[in-house]
Amino acid sequence: MRAEYDFSHGVRGKYASRLKPGGMLVVLDPDIAEAFGDAKTVNRTLRALLKAIPPRPPTSRRTA
Fold first, then answer.
1. What sign does the dihedral 20-21-22-24 (CA atoms) show?
2. Helix, strand, coil percentages for the chain (3-state, nearest 5)
3. How do residues 19-56 score in pLDDT, each as one tens digit?
4. E strand or H helix that includes residue 3
5. How far apart are CA 59 and CA 61, in angstroms?
6. Quick check: pTM over 0.85?
7. Cβ 34 vs Cβ 42: under 8 Å
8. What is the torsional sign of CA 34, 39, 40, 41?
9. Contact 25, 19 (CB under 8 A)
10. Which residues, other chains included, contact 25 with Cβ-Cβ below 8 Å and sequence gap of 6+?
């Protein structure tokens, strides 16, 4: 690594618009990412998994 980096020509938030409103960025481990290839496949697989497992009962919230 360098002792210093020049960010004088950097652009703040250059790629921020790629994240959709309400979206969540999740970083996959390299071996998992290699198995899926793209976000569409990951989402399709997770949706299938959610359909396959029984839903959890809602948790009761305590009030103070």
1. positive
2. 40, 0, 60
3. 778 878 889 999 999 999 898 999 999 999 999 998 88
4. none
5. 6
6. no
7. no
8. positive
9. yes
10. 19
Which among 42, 48, 4 has a CA at the least distance from the CA of 26? 42
pLDDT band at residue 16 using 50, 70 and 90 as cut-offs: confident
* DSSP calls for 13-61: TTTGGGSPTT----PPPHHHHHHH-SHHHHHHHHHHHHHHSPPPPPPPP
| Cα 28 to Cα 26: distance, rounded to the nearest angstrom | 6
Question: What is the residue type of 42?
Answer: V
- Taking residues 4-26, what's their average pLDDT? 87
Longest alpha-carbon distance in the chain: 53
Gyration radius (Cα) of the chain, Å: 19
Closest CA to 42 of 52, 28, 21, 56: 28
